[in-house]
Structure formats: structure tokens, C-alpha cells
From TrEMBL:
Record bears the keyword Transport: yes
Gene Ontology CC terms, in alphabetical order: plasma membrane
Cell compartments where the protein resides: Cell membrane
The keyword Transport appears for this protein: yes
Alphabetical UniProt keywords: Amino-acid transport, Cell membrane, Membrane, Transmembrane, Transmembrane helix, Transport
Main location, first listed in the record: membrane
Any one of the GO BP annotations: amino acid transport
Protein name as catalogued: Amino acid/amide ABC transporter membrane protein 1, HAAT family
Entry similarity comment: Belongs to the binding-protein-dependent transport system permease family. LivHM subfamily.
Molecular function via GO: transmembrane transporter activity
């Protein structure tokens, strides 16, 4: 039972990332009808927002510390972060330590701006083009973005630690009545799971309870009628593209302590997230979220030593096998709208 619970937790961790990326993909497809293969690159850019802010906060200058000497007795030069000069030592150390959560504030306007430029500068020209054209142009854009990141940040992963308050592991087993050390789980992975729930809940609440969101949902159902009412639905859809980019970026920001970011991490998540979207149902937001967590849990169980020893390679293909089965029996996906992908 303890291993079962542990795999559920691991699955929720993976499923959180899948669900957040798939949510943004579905927002874009549901509003604009665009199959955006550059969405994984937005996840990757979000992670590098965290890397950039962390490096910026760690910038330092050298001073001579008279209290410290080298082996010859000469005063030593030491590196002092600029944030120490600006905010003091204690506050400066706290800011550096909490660089990843602070990156959320840094990433939101940047990701919304990138989404706006991407949609206005390129994607709007492909609204009425076939999905194959959309896939080709957005996939090409993703390659360009990742090569730019590779040029400036290098090809190697860049470790970016979580705040010290969330380092280490949590004895989850004791919480649910097991022996001590039976179920040990990293604090930050739990933080990421709850963070994903907050973001998902915020997006659904925004679409359901705000006037803007209601108009967007109406436009998703019948774009022409909403336009005839005098509402600039295209402008609202552009804003939704920016929001979808921000969701992907925030998912990337909080993921960096779990998986050190590199230039191709967007592509690694993109394919799996598209499978999630298709399984959940193209255009279905609840379907994308449910499929993300479901497939994350299945992948976690398929990665156990028992599964891999009895079915070698099952952890690499389980998501695709599930997708094949679901699409053969229900082409629209688990919660897809009737007629979508069923022609």
C-alpha cells in the first residue's frame, strides 16, 4: 500500500506539469482553433525566466574584507551580491533563496508579452489555414526559440534550487498512518502539485465567473454570433493566447527545482502534452486536466521496477498505448465535443 500511495504521488507530480501545459494548449485550440506546436517552448521559456532572475539576483562585486586574510596575511577579496547592498545582508540572502517563487512575478508580464507578439506577429496569419500548416509553422518557431535559448544559455542543464525552506523530503507515511520513513516525498513536488491546482482553479474560475471569461466561452461555442453582437472577440482571443502562454510559463518556472532546465525540455513535454490533449478531447478544458493527471499516474505505475522487469519499455510507451485505445474506441477523446476529430 505504501508503494501504491508513493506512485500516486509521483503520478500527480508528473500529471501536474502535463495538465498545466495541456490546459494552455486547449485554451489556444478552443479559442483560436490553432494547433500550437510552439507551446512547449513557452514552458521552456518560463523555466529560463527563473534561471535568468536567479542569475541576476546572484550578480556580485568584489570588495576587500579586512577581517579575512590569505595564507600570506593579506586581506582577501570576497564576492558580495548587489542585493546585499540594496536590501541588506539578511533580506538579500532571503531574496536570493526565494528566487524561484519570485520569478513568478517576473515571468507573468514577460510570458503574456511573448504570447501576444507570437499571436499577432505570426499565428494570426494561419487561423484559416489547414492544421498541417499550423503544425509546421509553430514547430519551426519552437525550433528557432530553443536554438536561441541554446545560444545564450548553453546546452547543459542549469540547476536552480528551491528555497531552503522546501528542500528535503516530507514523511507522508506518518501523516496517513504508516510507519516512519515508509513514504518519503520531496517537499517541492508537493508544492508543485498544489501550485498546479491553484493555477487550474484560477483559470476555470476566470472563464466561469468573469464577464470576460463568459464572453470567451461564448466565442468558443459560436464565434460568429458573438461577433455580430458587436464584441471584438478577436481581441479577447488574443488576450487568451497571452494567458495561455503565461500558464505554460508559470508551469515552467515552478518546475525548475524538479528538473534543471535545458533548451530542449519544451520538446520533451510537448509531445506528451499533445497526447494528453487528444486523450482528454480537443477543445475540452476539463478533459485536458483530467487526462493530464490520469496519464501522469499511469506513467508513474508503468515506471515501477515490477512493471519494467515484466514489460520492458512499458514506461516509455504506456501513454501512447492508452491514447491508441481511447482514440480507437472514442475518437473525440474522453470529454471532447461531438464532431471534433470524428470526421
Amino acid at each position: 500500500m505504501d508503494q501504491f500511495i508513493l506512485q500516486i504521488l509521483n503520478g500527480l507530480d508528473k500529471g501536474s506539469a502535463y495538465a498545466l501545459i495541456a490546459l494552455g494548449l486547449t485554451l489556444i485550440f478552443g479559442t483560436l482553433g490553432v494547433v500550437n506546436f510552439a507551446h512547449g517552448a513557452l514552458f521552456m521559456l518560463g523555466s529560463f525566466c527563473a534561471v535568468t532572475l536567479s542569475k541576476f539576483l546572484s550578480l556580485s562585486h568584489k570588495i576587500v574584507d579586512e577581517t579575512r586574510t590569505d595564507f600570506l596575511g593579506n586581506p582577501m577579496e570576497v564576492d558580495v551580491p548587489y542585493v546585499h547592498d540594496w536590501f541588506g545582508v539578511a533580506a538579500g540572502d532571503a531574496i536570493i533563496d526565494w528566487a524561484v517563487p519570485l520569478s513568478l512575478i517576473f515571468a507573468i508580464p514577460i510570458m503574456i508579452g511573448i504570447g501576444y507578439v507570437m499571436e499577432r506577429g505570426l499565428i494570426k496569419h494561419f487561423y484559416k489555414r489547414p492544421h498541417a500548416d499550423q503544425i509546421l509553422v509553430t514547430f519551426g518557431l519552437a525550433i528557432v526559440i530553443q536554438e536561441i535559448v541554446k545560444y545564450y544559455y548553453g546546452a547543459n542543464p542549469i540547476p536552480t534550487p528551491a528555497p531552503s525552506a522546501f528542500k528535503g523530503s516530507f514523511d507522508f507515511g506518518v501523516l496517513v498512518g504508516f510507519d516512519a520513513n515508509a513514504i518519503i516525498y520531496p517537499y517541492w513536488r508537493l508544492v508543485y502539485f498544489f501550485f498546479s491546482l491553484v493555477i487550474i482553479g484560477a483559470v476555470f474560475a476566470f472563464l466561469r465567473f468573469t464577464t470576460f471569461g463568459m464572453v470567451v466561452r461564448a466565442g468558443m461555442a459560436d464565434r460568429e454570433t458573438v461577433g455580430l453582437l458587436g464584441i471584438d472577440i478577436d481581441k479577447r482571443f488574443t488576450i487568451m493566447f497571452g494567458i495561455a502562454a503565461a500558464v505554460a510559463g508559470l508551469a515552467g518556472v515552478m518546475y525548475v527545482p524538479i528538473n534543471p532546465p535545458n533548451y530542449h525540455m519544451g520538446m520533451d513535454f510537448l509531445v506528451l502534452s499533445f497526447v494528453v490533449v487528444v486523450v482528454g478531447g480537443m477543445g475540452s478544458l476539463p478533459g485536458a486536466v483530467a487526462a493530464g493527471f490520469l496519464l501522469g499516474i499511469l506513467e508513474s505505475f508503468a515506471s515501477t521496477s515490477w512493471a519494467v522487469s515484466n514489460l520492458p519499455g512499458i514506461n516509455q510507451v504506456i501513454i501512447y498505448l492508452v491514447a491508441i485505445i481511447i482514440l480507437l474506441t472514442r475518437p473525440r477523446g474522453l470529454m471532447g465535443r461531438k464532431g471534433v476529430m470524428e470526421e
